[in-house]
Amino acid sequence: MTVLGPARRGHAGPGVVTGARPSTLGSLAALVLAAFAVVEAALLTLGLLVTRVLAHGVVHREEAAFEREVLAHRTPLLDHLTYAGTIFGATSTVIALTAVGCVVLAVSGHGPRLPTFLVLAVAGETVLFVLASLVLHRVRPPIPHLDPAPPTSSCPPGHTAATVALWGGLALGRAGTRRGNRLRALTTVAAVLVPLFVLTSQLYRGMHWPTDVVASVLFTTAWLLLLLLRAVLPPPRMTRSDGDAAPRSGPPRPPA
Hints:
This protein has helices at about 25-55, 60-70, 75-90, 90-105, 115-135, 160-175, 180-205, 210-230. With about 260 residues, the chain is mostly helical. The protein has a domain at about 80-230. About 35% of the residues are buried.
């Protein structure tokens, strides 16, 4: 994708991603809510499958064996290192870094659409996570927890979902521009490594089951992609770049 230059009649204004949807606020809100409903329904379906249908089957037995292995391999050094994963996924950290990410996207000259996307990504993930945790009520693993257990259930993990939404949203936002290739590469790497570190830390610290973090990654990734496709990326027929010729002025040319 490229970025449009100065606004021209009938085209997006400065800083808007090429071909961005000229949606009204109402239609944009409807698209976001539709994406939200789809992801929440999928998350609840997956969560109920794991916590109700498979709660006493082979999946649960394998997860219980995994938790016993985690407990057997804990060390003081790993206890300290994985605490950093808790800090990276904490609510205060995510809020602060989201604000920084919005500033980075805003000052890059791409208008309000991409910062708004990042805010919606993180805020929407939070609501999706809270609603699902109220329904699923999954008990946390039966090993000592190295962090204070919040009142929400084990599924889905909020720390993992928040870091996927933040770093994945920032990477997708930067992918919509050609400027700052180094920063774009850095955010892409961070979008993989930071959530991976956080979810591994949460598993080690006994806060979540393996299927919890898998569900968290899946639903947050789906939320990001649906939000991007429905609210940010253009339909193909509207794509236009700066190199396109401006519309011809004057009367139309008669047919040959």
